[in-house]
Amino acid sequence: MRRGLSKAGLGRLENEEQLIELAGAYGFEAADADAVTLIERHGVNGAKELLTRNGVELGAIGLPVEWRQDEQTFLSGLPQLTRSAAAAAELGGTACCTYILPSTDWNPAHFMAVATRRLRTCARILGAYGIRLGLEFVGPHHLRTRWKHPFIWTMDETLDWIAAIGEPNVGLLLDAYHWYTTGGTAEDIGRLKPEQIVHVHLNDAPDVPVADALDNGRLYPGEGVIDLGTFLRTLNGIGYRGIVAQEILTQTQPEESPEELARRSRAGFDRAYAAAGL
Amino acid sequence: MRRGLSKAGLGRLENEEQLIELAGAYGFEAADADAVTLIERHGVNGAKELLTRNGVELGAIGLPVEWRQDEQTFLSGLPQLTRSAAAAAELGGTACCTYILPSTDWNPAHFMAVATRRLRTCARILGAYGIRLGLEFVGPHHLRTRWKHPFIWTMDETLDWIAAIGEPNVGLLLDAYHWYTTGGTAEDIGRLKPEQIVHVHLNDAPDVPVADALDNGRLYPGEGVIDLGTFLRTLNGIGYRGIVAQEILTQTQPEESPEELARRSRAGFDRAYAAAGL
Amino acid sequence: MRRGLSKAGLGRLENEEQLIELAGAYGFEAADADAVTLIERHGVNGAKELLTRNGVELGAIGLPVEWRQDEQTFLSGLPQLTRSAAAAAELGGTACCTYILPSTDWNPAHFMAVATRRLRTCARILGAYGIRLGLEFVGPHHLRTRWKHPFIWTMDETLDWIAAIGEPNVGLLLDAYHWYTTGGTAEDIGRLKPEQIVHVHLNDAPDVPVADALDNGRLYPGEGVIDLGTFLRTLNGIGYRGIVAQEILTQTQPEESPEELARRSRAGFDRAYAAAGL
Amino acid sequence: MRRGLSKAGLGRLENEEQLIELAGAYGFEAADADAVTLIERHGVNGAKELLTRNGVELGAIGLPVEWRQDEQTFLSGLPQLTRSAAAAAELGGTACCTYILPSTDWNPAHFMAVATRRLRTCARILGAYGIRLGLEFVGPHHLRTRWKHPFIWTMDETLDWIAAIGEPNVGLLLDAYHWYTTGGTAEDIGRLKPEQIVHVHLNDAPDVPVADALDNGRLYPGEGVIDLGTFLRTLNGIGYRGIVAQEILTQTQPEESPEELARRSRAGFDRAYAAAGL
């Protein structure tokens, strides 16, 4: 399982280039960087060269489409999605991710129908470029009542949604924090096939009751209470060989420099991988 | 628009054959009969001959799959669906219908995801045989709170669901009672394309507040307060040329004989078509 | 059936605006203009206003994707397709068309597989914007041996291909010249449902043996030997209410001015519609 | 990679039960047996018990649908497919396979379109039961001209076809004989993802020029010239962990008893796995 970095957890990064350089400098093999920006600034060959020079591959890109609002807003994002998919594919990217808010102001059944169609459209555009779409279920309890009606937040519900979308290139983004806050077990991961997982997020949770863990209250791997050893060992055991990228959402930006945070991230990954016997 | 009869509204029918004969005798052009039963009893040629002799075509068959419960129950219905589709196709049938309960004990978003996949599977099996799947939204207000959570009950939500299912052969079953109890207008029908409608149900509602109209409190066409003239005229105006089948759900079986009820149905259709200027 | 003009047959048109103005001036209700160009030059509102002022709606746009060559070329067209679809949708367009060459240098079975996937991708992007994809089978005999292997050229083969693509928004572009050069009959059109037809081309053929009619040897409607009365009458009879657009492919540009050619087109349409009793 | 036996290569087997018992007795972990027959004779629990008692799991079932002839024949096989899929799923089966003849009497492009739709329908029915469809490309040169027109026979063409079918549960049946007779290399296998392979066939080829190797001239693993060490090592290297089932097609039934042939098969597998370092 290749170690990756995202921007979330590195403080005040100046740009994509710094993310890639820090990833390379601290032993990470992937960076969740923006492919369009990289190509705009360096050209395709320059961007590839930047990645290669740092020993880093392109990780997951974010889904540049607002699929939760009105139809016009959704449609207006599709040209950008096509450009993003093309750009990511040029740099060797194979993953694009979005998250599922666990509550909604819509009628939830109706929203599920509309969002199923919209995410299918996104998956199909991505699929043309050989890119997969990862859906991240979101566990923190406070978000389940943040909007009017409960939506979905468990892994099994998300797998059912993926089946409803019905495209070969849709799978899970499995985030340790959401696994933890939805009461996930080793068995839950153990019954996945590796190809059902598009991307993995690594992070940790504070020592508070699970129901009180806030979405933006995450810790660096190994600094909290999530059993990341079991998490990573089980993922490895089912044959997952993709990227495990750090994602630390916090209420305020950390004080340390990006460099110090990258070193701290490296230490966290070392601890978590060691706990997994990897 | 061809007039059709279903069993609902003809009292204590003895069998499919009586439905077909009454349809033919009272000027109906279609009967929502069970194709498998007809073929079992008459063979394919005999069943065709029975229909032809009575001047009646096969209307819609019901979906013989329980898609609202557990997965095992759903799967166990698919062999029967394949047989039903094959049988209907042999008799010239092109429609299969099911209804959507407006509330559910499931988490509604999750149920929408699961049901989307299941109905897609049904649609694909039907589609192999050239048969379309009609989804009937169900309007009576009392059913919206009959189970724990609201699901969907409007035409627009159902059209969004049809798009989520994403198969070319899925459309609406448009029932006059549900159009009425969801506050449907001529404009609502007017913006449909005829190919979006798989089947139409005709019936009437008692003179009570709309919110009090019970699902099994339906009247014969022309005996109630629904503006069936507008309903049929608008359907005809958009180019719909399919079947308009009577469906009268009542709390108790009517006292009259099937023959008397068929005559009454005929009179009701005459009134409604006349009101539409057809 | 609304009369439409394309550029093919109007000589040396200066731009899209002239096409729209000539369409309006000579009683045509639609113009197969380029939506992206119109919006670039006039903005969305200006483009709409230009169409409205001339009493013309946007007809079919061409598919801006090369789906017959290598994969890289195919993929590089998708961002443009997304932009074109968005632009057409903004102007009320609902149709996008491409043609099928009747022979190919590829292994034909392999090409069919690859092209099925590619056109499905195109259809899905168009479908997100409510636009349909029309496939035009191409009849002239000389093209059947123009490349190494026969591909497909009949209406029935094309319908089978549409089923293989499997998207709800794919249908036929029915061109009178190709109907004629493939030996099409009224019965062939008569068994279509109107929603299977995305767009129609009108033109005529010289009085030569059918097998000698050249693809770029087309005449104006009513100036040749195709039974356009039967063609249009049957289309109207099955309920087709879409656009019938002129497309005249010739070896050399005609000498007349666009204005004279528009007048000639109008006369041709008048003759053909009159022959159809419309 | 689990070793499996099919009937092809065991001579005059009496029934499915003997296949399962021989598989168990000679160290095979899977048997390509007919699930419907097993359940008819033993009931679901009895059939499961028979498999468990012999330490054998259900391998791939054959596709019980004739998809290469007329539409009526195709459709008439779908009820049986639904039953077979249900039966296989009840016994834990996850694979169903069919083969692609490398030439055809149809127009090959047209046949590709029709067969794409039909195999999609089959895949969807299988997919409802969690069963995958494996497509076997067929390499022997003499079959490429056996019917009028070339169809497809390479792995890459087959992968393109799988993409055209477009269902998540369709993949390759990779047969050592067809890999060999199409000039397959380790690199060809090396660029597959394990989930692209539904089933594997093991067998060997006589020491004749590749172009002369007959489809029904196959040898037991390790008795011929195919580099099965490379074949199996590469499959294992990409992470394939599914079944490798023997399939020996010969012109005449071998003289030996099923028991002797099972022993010989075991020895062949031992040689091939040893050559692969497994």
UniProtKB/TrEMBL annotation, chains A, B, C, D:
<dbReference type="InterPro" id="IPR050312">
    <property type="entry name" value="IolE/XylAMocC-like"/>
</dbReference>
<protein>
    <submittedName>
        <fullName>Sugar phosphate isomerase/epimerase family protein</fullName>
    </submittedName>
</protein>
<dbReference type="GO" id="GO:0016853">
    <property type="term" value="F:isomerase activity"/>
</dbReference>
<dbReference type="Pfam" id="PF01261">
    <property type="entry name" value="AP_endonuc_2"/>
</dbReference>
<feature type="domain" description="Xylose isomerase-like TIM barrel">
    <location>
        <begin position="23"/>
        <end position="262"/>
    </location>
</feature>
<dbReference type="InterPro" id="IPR036237">
    <property type="entry name" value="Xyl_isomerase-like_sf"/>
</dbReference>
<dbReference type="InterPro" id="IPR013022">
    <property type="entry name" value="Xyl_isomerase-like_TIM-brl"/>
</dbReference>
<keyword id="KW-0413">Isomerase</keyword>
